[in-house]
Amino acid sequence: MLDNHILSLSIWVPILAGILVLFTGSDKNATLARWIALAGSVAGFLVTLPLYTRFDRADGDFQFQEGFDWIPSFNIHYHLGADGIAVPLILLTSFITVIVVLAGWEVIQKRVAQYMAAFLIMSGLMIGVFTALDAVLFYVFWEAMLIPMFLVIGVWGGPNRVYATIKFFLYTLLGSLLMLVAFIYLFHHTHSFEIVDYYMLPIPMEVQILIFMAFFMAFAVKIPMWPVHTWLPDAHVEAPTGGSVVLAAIMLKLGAYGFLRFAMPIAPDAAHYLSGFMITLSLIAVVYIALVALVQQDMKKLIAYSSISHMGFVTLGMFIFNPLGMEGGIVQMISHGFVSGALFLCVGVLYDRMHSRQIADYGGVVNTMPTFAAFAVLFAMANAGLPGTSGFVGEFMVILGALQQDFWYAFLAATTLIFGAAYTLWMVKRVFYGDIGNAHVAALKDVNRREFLILAILAAMTLGFGLYPAPLTEITHATVTQLLSHLAQSKLPGTI
Amino acid sequence: MTYMQKIYLLIPLLPLLAAVVVGLFGRKLPRFTAHLFTITGVGASFALSVLVFQDVLAGHIYNGAVYTWLTSGHTSFEVGFLIDPLSAMMMVVVTFVSLMVHIYTIGYMHEDPGYSRFFSYISLFTFSMLMLVMSNNFMQLFFGWEAVGLVSYLLIGFWYTRPTAIYANLKAFLVNRVGDFGFLLGIGMVLFFFGSLDYQAVFSVAPQFADMNVEIVPGHSWSLLTVVCLLLFVGAMGKSAQVPLHVWLPDSMEGPTPISALIHAATMVTAGIFMVARMSPLYELSTTALSTVMVIGAITALFMGFLGIIQNDIKRVVAYSTLSQLGYMTVALGASAYSVAIFHLMTHAFFKALLFLAAGSVIMGMHHDQDIRNMGGLRKYMPITWLTSLIGSLALIGTPFLSGFYSKDSIIEAAQMSHIPGSGFAYFAVLAGVFVTAFYSFRMYFLVFHGKSRWMEAKDDHGHGHDDHDHDDAHHHGLGPHDKPHESPWVVTLPLIALAIPSLVIGYLAIEPMLFGHFFSNVIFVDAEAHPTMHELAHHFHGAAAMGLHAFTSLPFLLAASGVALSWFFYMKRPDIPAAIRQRFELVYRILDNKYGFDAFNEKFFAGGSRLIGSKLWQIGDVTIIDGLFVNGTARLIGRVSAIIRHLQSGLIYHYAFAMIIGVFVLLTFFMKK
Fold this sequence. Notes:
The complex is a heterodimer of chains A (496) and B (674).
Chain A: H1 6-22, H2 30-53, E1 63-71, E2 76-82, H3 86-103, H4 112-131, H5 135-144, H6 146-156, H7 161-190, H8 195-200, H9 205-222, H10 231-238, H11 241-266, H12 268-273, H13 275-294, H14 299-318, H15 323-354, H16 365-368, H17 370-383, H18 390-405, H19 407-414, H20 416-432, H21 439-442, H22 449-467, H23 470-488
Antiparallel strand pairs in A: 1-2
Helix pairs in contact in A: 1-2, 1-4, 2-3, 2-4, 3-4, 3-11, 3-15, 4-5, 4-6, 4-11, 5-7, 6-7, 7-9, 7-10, 9-11, 10-14, 11-14, 11-15, 13-14, 13-20, 14-15, 14-18, 14-20, 15-17, 15-18, 15-22, 15-23, 17-20, 17-22, 18-19, 18-22
Chain B: H1 3-25, H2 31-57, E1 62-72, E2 75-83, H3 85-108, H4 115-134, H5 138-156, H6 163-194, H7 199-205, E3 213-214, E4 222-223, H8 224-239, H9 248-251, H10 257-266, H11 271-278, H12 280-283, H13 287-309, H14 314-334, H15 338-365, H16 383-397, H17 403-417, H18 423-449, H19 490-516, H20 533-540, H21 544-551, H22 555-573, H23 576-584, H24 586-593, H25 598-646, H26 653-673
Antiparallel strand pairs in B: 1-2, 3-4
Helix pairs in contact in B: 1-2, 1-4, 2-3, 2-4, 3-4, 3-10, 3-15, 3-19, 4-5, 5-6, 6-8, 8-11, 8-13, 10-15, 11-15, 13-14, 13-18, 14-15, 14-17, 14-18, 15-16, 15-17, 15-19, 16-18, 16-19, 17-18, 17-19, 17-20, 18-22
């Protein structure tokens, strides 16, 4: 029976585990809370594995569908399904949750149960976002998942956390409300909240543009695209390590996923019409943000800006409308999940010891933490897009795809080869290389077994997908093909 | 999988396996296992490469995929091997030099705390380089291309506490990335227009595009193949250190000497040359591209040679010589004499690795003093190093019958015969380069091995000159006035001897099959009608012996001989003359000493400019405009507006009553008027 509810299990196992963790109560039972959280996150990961093994790679449609009527009077359903774009993201989410639980193991000493529960619940809600096929269900998950994130930043965050949380909240809320308006319009015309019904609805051009822009406001903020990106560096700087990891590894992808699931297929003509605009914003993200990253003094800010720059590749890939670009964008999302997550963990490892994120406070860390430095250099290289690491695959595909659209798109995108390497390796040089910078660095202890395990798992994923990305693209292939052919057909009234 | 296919796989994988094992567990295992594992790996790889080479000579060429990396749309990216005479020869050269360097490292690095790390890196390099040369497609080529860049980065910064080393490795990586930027765009053009990244597929369709034009810049129509070839060549300029992307190579000497020999002289830096030769079917279709290649090579060959004259660091002299020789190879490529370029690549790999390793041996003898002004007379103390250095230097300057002579003379002739625009300049540059090469090579040779032992006169401070080892207070740097240098141990001298033999004979043996035989006939493509250089070279060639004999009366030989003679006169007979010249031509010296200002320009303009733009974008774009004006501005605006509106809620009943009365009055007026 459970076989037909893989997606429900993927959502509710971590959420229930999170609630269970909450029952352990105060920090007296912190150890128990940690172990339940770990068990819950591992269980949450295991229940998503059949999505990979049982996924029919030849089928581009939604699979593992399940559902029942939820609010029949408004035709709202609890309807779940996952296609080749959602499946990798779901797996990434459940995987990263395990990592985050491990990463917070000893680091979090206050309100342990609540911290762990927040991440488990958030994991379930985010998987809900990736699997909802009903617009209202999607909206509920979309808004609900923000709550644990606010709490994570607001409770366990840094000194300026209130500013960061409010900025994050307001930025996000504005966009979400416009998305709701779009849903109401679509419901009005289809009397359905089924997303698939929206795909079939003919919409005039002006309305398509409005709908697209409404979705744009919701999703561009999440990705984040330039110029609505400034909440991200602040949020990252204030967030605890686990919060940064989830934010970078998964939350940013929700925006890109939103474009692929809603904005583009519902308003394909507008998507084509506005592609120049989207590409321009993406390229600004790639070039402008990379230059901004170059001059950051705070490691977390630097990686945050680097994330924005890398996400520029995702949106660039999507809006050049060819298979290389779109699949490259998806690969980039998954890869960025591992690499940026790993980099934030690396900063966390240093922050836990030194309580500083300033590059200037470090220097010569390799002398005292050689194993850690080896990991950090690997992830830095992946961030700089070195072939053999996952960071290369997506960028490579997107650049090749962009060139088929316009040489100059590829030209600007490829500058990341230089700037990406410059900001990443310059940071590596100042933090890790050189003589021991000060007495604090001299007293550093190398990674412990728990940290080693986390970094080693992420390193294996980074290298694995770099050397053999085919398992990933096999999953996305049929869906991307189907989506591109859908996007190639006009949805203007009278043309269908 | 056939028997041979398994061997093809083993050749790169054995060094990789050794690198991984030593890299991961090296710190836990006994020290000797580091060199045991890696030497076994690369040694087996060399033996198998020889086997493959013989198999290829027997006519067995292999081209096939190992696995599909990924598929997107209708494009498949594969990892696969192309085993033909070109790659087989490269495999033998790479694994042989690598094996020699591995052995040498036992002696050179034996005191270094990073012993196992070093072996792991050089084995990883061997793997990367083999993947590069064995590739049958552009994607894997790019993988190897960047992977060797990574290892180069790691090795230049091997002594990571030294500020100069970690500056140099970042610089090397970034400059190489500039090259890779062009290279990647070139690969993108190849995929877009030719529909594949597989060499064979691309080469077979390329001729159909010979007359196709593209408009990259609107209004300017350029030949597609010229654009593709030039973009790919940008990559070659980075990796093979051609002007203006050469700036990283001299600084790379911050790395330990064995890797200067392996990576920054014999193998990695020749990747660009190899790539262009591999792409000969494309380059043959664009005379414009060839002409550009030739001119850039000629500039590098001559002007980098000049810089070798004024260097006092023994490794830097050899480094500039490498730059100059890479320029020679590039000239050959531009003259459509791809096989000559590859031939010089091969001979150069042997004698330049020899020269570097010998320099390392000298550095060890001098207790890590690298300044040639402190040396002299080492001939007596280090006989094997001296003799092998002499062989290497003679080969480098093109002494008849030695390996460098055959390859270099062929390049000069090729430049002379070529009709491509720019060949006149190239011919002049390579000819003048012969004199320059001979001069700086023997300047170094005489200063190091002959004359007075100057460290005996040196004051007690060892302030000048670099030292090539980790700063370690217990360690003694440089020789004291009463010290005597010792010949290096056998693990160091054995590779010197093993490299000296091919430096002597390989040119004589290989010129006929490689340049004029059928060795490269199915690999390197030359359009004999458009570019008849090789044809004319063959016309003038009457056997290796005749070529050697004929050389004694030729212009290059006279130039080389006068270069040697002049350096002898300047540095052995009248050391006051160079000093006087230097004072007299202060400006010229300053230009050369500043390396034509490339470094200063890059540092100010590119590095400084990027940082400036970055901080302006951040401070003005993000902080002031987006956050200040829009985000916080919106918040402030709402705050201000509400601060004003707040006054309406005064809490006083009569205010509200007054407002109500006014309201009622207004409404009444409005409706009554209607």
